[in-house]
Design goal:
The complex is a heterodimer. Chain A is of the alpha/beta class. Chain A has 17 helices and 14 strands. Chain B has a single domain, classed as TIM Barrel. Classes of the chains: A alpha/beta, B alpha/beta. At the A-B interface, strand 2, helix 2, helix 9 and strand 11 of A face helix 3, helix 5 and strand 6 of B.
């Protein structure tokens, strides 16, 4: 690792503050029962973070179990097709279990083991985080319960079966809008009930402090590798980074090690659904307002009475009314630009990447690809973009087929 | 003297326990809430806890989740709830009313505007997802407007933290009787007693016990150590079943509460408490 990378890792570590606030965002908005468990988690995490044995265990798992580093792949045909900046794909889809989610679940599961917890719970939208949690639970011999919105169970049947194969119990959540936010509520209710033996593995950089911090730390391996790979493969840093943002863990993972590089533009791509103007979308940073949900203050999709409103996206993993508090902070502070692409644009990108590069992207990641296409055309051919290909699209083929009226 | 303080002092003088009854405002319809509130007091309720419905009630069990959904079908808002309490106050100026809910609806209404508007009408606020660490600003705004911030304590709250929270307390303290969500029934009286004793070492503020109190038996058991018991899901379950017919619902709620009131007033164990 170059000296450059190391420096960067240390000096950007200014938020959150010790109470978990990113400016006015973040914090710890939970029921009293969870305050002590969160403090215990924070203490355990701080201790582990500074423990070389823990770090080695984590790094070894990333190398030998996940298969890291994931390649930085130059998409030559796509670059040619788009007639603009050079497109590089950070291949998180090649990780074990097929998405970036595993980086975080390994970190948290190792922490759970250290804390003597025997049962892990997780919420999931697209099912990727659920699969990643079930996977690491199988490997460490932990009981695993995954909460998943009943609606999402329909949309992501292959992942549900995968979790069950791995020995996890998948609990359908039928309250509220029956999607990711409701799965999170239900997981919090489980945690508050079983807090003695249970570790809650949150799948994204949201939730009460210290989750946004520790999930970020476990995901920054993406950006650290990408930074080093870019320097090695192209001799320079990229000109732009593009990642999709639901809760925002793959985006923070990529952006964070580049935050001090002002010349590297960062674009977080939210799910525009039917279009921002229709109101049917999942883009709180583009069209929401600050509020309190799921343990933190952040941008939310809410009505005038402070009720959380139903979101829409073709992609189950982005179908969430909130976003990690650090993204809210980065938006206000101006260091990341948050944009949105529609379901149709994401679907077109899904097909284009599949046909031109032979890579089937997750519908979540297809949002990043779709925006990169627009961006590339505005940039010079000597410039480069890293797109975080956060997951593979096998899980989505049923959804895509259904939309296109094809029976499998 | 605040309504809450007066209420607890009078009860203490008569060696009685407070009955705190919870309903979700707007359940099943905003127009029925006022009538149900009056029914609660007629059946011996000392303090009304009025829930602010929220789309994502993460500390609540299915009974109150569904109550929120029913109330939100009619878009019951903070503004509507203030109107309801205003009407309630026209007929009842003594029963303390405490709002209970989650931070977001209050935050979107505007905390400052909320505090000044409800001053004099509403006596306390319990915000489930606002621990002391996040409530400094909100708490001082409430204080300036003579509204008590009611803090929660839980089985997981350790001694040092109990000391910190009791130091901030006003009105009363709300002890959550078990690790879990509202409406679950797993109350363990021995552990509740032990924890309430531990809390009492740090404070003279009245302690209410809530979660898991569903009938006269559980109320009587808990009243042995507490100054007040909170009954919530048991009432809301009746409203869920009969709420569309308000007179039937209120009469059933009243008979439940009268049993509980009776158990609280005629329990031998109560005589043993300081």
């Amino acid at each position: 690792m170059s000296a450059n990378v190391e420096e960067n890792k240390i000096s950007t570590n200014t938020v959150p503050d010790e109470d978990g606030h990113f400016g006015i965002y973040g914090g710890r908005f939970v029921a009293e029962t969870l305050m002590t468990p969160l403090e215990e988690l924070e203490v355990a995490y701080t201790k582990s973070k500074n423990d070389p044995t823990f770090q080695k265990e984590f790094d070894d798992d990333l190398a030998y179990y996940v298969g890291r580093p994931s390649p930085l792949y130059f998409a030559a045909r796509l670059t040619k097709e788009w007639c603009g900046a050079q497109i590089y794909l950070k291949r998180e889809d090649l990780n074990h279990t097929g998405a970036h989610k595993i980086n975080n679940t390994i970190g948290q599961a190792l922490l759970a083991k250290r804390m003597g917890k025997t049962r892990i719970i997780a919420e999931t939208g697209a099912g990727q985080h659920g699969v990643a949690s079930a996977t690491i639970a199988a490997r460490l011999g932990l009981e695993c319960v995954v909460y998943m919105g009943a609606e999402d169970i329909q949309r992501q049947a292959p992942n549900v079966y995968r979790m069950r194969l791995l020995g996890a119990t998948v609990v359908p959540v039928t309250s509220g809008s029956r999607t990711l936010k409701d799965a999170l509520n239900e997981a919090l209710r489980d945690w508050v009930t079983n807090v003695d033996n249970t570790f809650y593995i949150i799948g994204t950089v949201a939730g009460p402090h210290p989750y946004p911090l520790l999930v970020r730390d476990f995901q920054t391996v993406i950006g650290r590798e990408a930074r080093e790979q870019s320097l090695n493969q192209t001799g320079k840093l990229p000109d732009a980074l593009v990642a999709c943002v639901g809760g925002g863990s793959n985006a923070i993972g990529l952006f964070y090690p580049f935050l001090l590089d002002a010349n590297v533009k960062k674009y977080g791509v939210e799910a525009g659904g039917d279009g921002i103007e229709t109101g049917r979308h999942s883009a709180p940073l583009n069209a929401g307002s600050p509020g309190v949900l799921h343990g933190n203050r952040t941008y939310l999709m809410e009505d005038n009475n402070g009720q959380i409103i139903e979101t829409h996206s073709i992609s189950a993993g982005l179908d969430y009314p909130g976003v990690g508090p650090e993204h809210s902070w980065l938006k206000d502070e101006g260091s990341v630009e948050y944009v949105a692409v529609t379901d149709d644009e994401a679907l077109a990108a899904f097909h284009q990447l599949t046909r031109i590069e032979g890579i089937i992207p997750a519908l979540e990641s297809s949002h990043a690809v779709a925006y990169a296409k627009k961006l590339a055309k505005t940039m010079g051919k000597e410039q480069s973009i890293i797109v975080n290909l956060s997951g593979r699209g096998d899980k989505d083929i049923n959804t895509v087929a259904r939309i296109e009226g094809i029976e499998l | 003297m605040s309504r809450l303080q007066k209420c607890f002092e009078q009860l203490a003088q008569n060696n009685k326990k407070a009955l705190i009854s919870y309903i979700t405002a707007g359940d099943p319809h905003p127009s029925s809430t006022l009538e149900i509130m009056h029914a609660l007091t007629e059946a011996g309720t000392d303090i009304i806890e009025l829930g602010i419905p929220f789309s994502d009630p993460m500390a609540d069990g299915p009974v109150i989740q569904l109550a929120c959904e029913r109330a939100l079908k009619h878009d019951t808002s903070v503004k509507d709830i203030i109107e309801i309490v205003k009407q309630f106050r026209e007929a009842n100026s003594t029963t303390p009313v405490v709002l209970m809910g989650y931070q977001n609806p209050i935050e979107i209404y505007g905390v400052e505007k909320f505090a000044s508007t409800v001053s004099g009408l509403i006596d306390g606020v319990i915000t489930v997802d606002l621990p002391p660490e996040e409530s400094r600003q909100v708490g001082s705004l409430y204080k300036q407007n003579d509204i008590d911030t009611i803090y929660l304590l839980a089985p997981t709250t350790k001694d040092q933290r109990i000391q910190m929270i009791t130091g901030l307390a006003s009105g009363f303290l709300y002890y959550v009787s078990f690790k879990g969500i509202t409406g679950a029934s797993q109350i363990d009286v021995k552990s509740v007693e032990a924890k309430v004793d531990q809390i009492r070492k740090h404070t003279k503020t009245p302690i209410a016990v809530g979660f898991g109190i569903k009938d006269a038996t559980t109320a009587r058991m808990v009243a042995g150590c507490a100054n007040a018991v909170v009954v919530g899901s048991a009432i809301v379950s009746i409203i869920a079943e009969y709420g569309e017919d308000v007179p039937v619902a209120t009469s059933k709620v009243k008979s439940l509460l009268r049993e509980i009131r009776d158990a609280l007033d005629n329990s031998e164990s109560i005589q043993n408490i300081a």
